[in-house]
Amino acid sequence: MTYRFKTGGGVCSQGIEIEIGDDGRIRNIQFYGGCPGNLQGIGKLAAGMTPQEVADKLEGIRCGGKPTSCPDQLAHALRAIAEKEK
Fold first, then answer.
1. For a tag on the chain, would you pick the N or C end, based on fewer CB atoms within 10 A?
2. Distance from C-alpha of 41 to C-alpha of 58, rounded to nearest angstrom
């Protein structure tokens, strides 16, 4: 299943598309906007992991003086997906 999430908090990326496989693991993550190389790297590292594993690692990361970051927004998106799936 593919989910789309609009980012907030003034981060550079405008949105995230997350594909979760039937096994409950992340298949693909696509950020729209932001730092392409870094965000592609995050997507590659997260592939094959569970949403919970990724959210636990990335939640709370800040970018500069902002209260959030692209990785933190991904964590929020993954937590929202988990809530939706309950």
1. C
2. 13
What share of the chain has pLDDT > 90, as a percent?
Answer: 95
List C-alpha distances in Å: 38 to 23, 34, 51, 81.
26, 9, 19, 23
C-alpha 77/C-alpha 71 separation (Å) is 10
What are the C-alpha distances in Å from 20 to residues 46, 79, 81?
A: 11, 13, 10
Rounded Cα–Cα distance for residues 1 and 65 (Å)? 34
Q: In this predicted structure, what is the pLDDT of residue 86?
A: 74
Burial group, residue 8, by CB count within 10 angstroms (0-12, 13-18, 19+): exposed
Backbone angles phi, psi at 3, to 5 degrees: -120, 145
